[in-house]
Amino acid sequence: MNDSKTVEPAAQPAPRLVIDLAAIQRNFAALKRLAPSAQAGAVVKANAYGLGASRVVPALADAGCRTFYVAHTTEGREAREALAGREADIFVFNGFWPSELESLREARLFPVINDLHQLHQLRELAPDLPCAIHFDTGMNRLGLGPNATRSLMDNPDWLAGLDVRQLMSHLACSHEPAHPLNARQLERFSAVRDHYSDIPASFANSGGIMLDPRYHFDILRPGLALYGGHPAPGQDDPFAPAVRVEAPVLQVRTIRAGDCAGYGATFTAEREMQIATVATGYADGLLRACGNGGFGRIGGVKVPIIGRISMDLTTLDLSDVTEPVTPGDWVSFLDGDIEPMAQAAQTISYEFLVRLGLRFQRVYLPGTSAAL
């Protein structure tokens, strides 16, 4: 027996990525409530974590956000255009590069200074350009290391005349509240802040906001939490799901015990069962590693992924679905399940978000135009 039902090609609806702008705004408001003494900014690099900066940035501005962070100058220009004339500060993480000076000025972008060479170049070429200074307190990725930090503190004239809008550092282990590096980084950054007490300080990413108020300082830099990811496993999750994949069922069939499903025959049925093939795969960003471990939902019922995920197709076990499933019915992925789906793929929710493919039909659920 290998009975199947197939949808006619002309009737096939397109898989879609549904992005809830109101949920992103609610998450922004939730972050402000968690740290009421600090201003909340927003990290919108990587095209707002793959969800579309041209739509996410205005929604966050409507919610009251006035400070944005991007990785590259090109992302900064896109964020400035998306703001459509609304005032906001946009900081560029990847540093000051003289070749980009004209673009920085045109888009009113603020470079984040990551080493003393960049600082001296800024002093020489554009001392009036607002900037931030990044201090590496233990991540060893970007920022002034201990020796450069001491040199800067010992030479106050190096900052004289510069428009430094922020001091910043980045937590390496904020997703692990008990990790000893959190406290060490806090101690090191607090020493910097004490030395430059008149300059606003930014330290807490999404996970840092979930620590305690000592990590909040003046300006928050959330990313993942805005988009519905949970930055602190094991703690309460106050953030609303903001993105889901919806894909149509293409075919439903019954297989027998001993039948296989998918490339490599990595799944073998132990009994007769009904399965569905769905129109989405790793080309859309449904990570291949979710095969035989991830899941979708039909009408709220969990439907496990069986076998390997293909480029365009995914196969699901319908055993727990009590209502009939037919071609054209919708299956949802991610939504409130982004963390367990990432775990199934042995990755993190950040990667899941930024890999969601461009060939999805994107559907934006509107936000509110009033600040929350």
State the gist of this model.
With 372 residues, the chain is of the alpha/beta class.
Give the termini separation.
57 Å
Which descriptor suits the 3D outline? Answer: elongated
Q: Write down the CATH topology of the largest domain.
A: TIM Barrel
Strand content: 15-25%
- Compute the gyration radius: what is it? 24 Å
Helix count from the secondary structure assignment: 11
Number of strands: 20
Helix fraction, binned, reads: 25-40%
Q: In CATH, what is the homologous superfamily of the largest domain?
A: Alanine racemase
Report the sheet with the most strands, covering strand number, pairing sense and barrel closure: 7 strands, mixed
User: Structural class given helices, strands, pairing?
Assistant: alpha/beta
Q: What is the average of the pLDDT values?
A: 94
The CATH class designation of the largest domain is Alpha Beta
Q: What is the CATH architecture descriptor of the largest domain?
A: Alpha-Beta Barrel
Number of domains: 2
Low-confidence stretches: none
Give an overview in words.
- With 372 residues, the protein is an alpha/beta fold.
- The chain has 11 helices and 20 strands.
- The strands form 5 sheets. Strands 1, 2, 12, 15, 18, 19 and 20 form a 7-stranded mixed sheet that branches. The chain has a 7-stranded parallel sheet with strand order 4-5-6-7-8-9-10.
- α1 crosses α3 and α3 (53-62) crosses α4 (73-83).
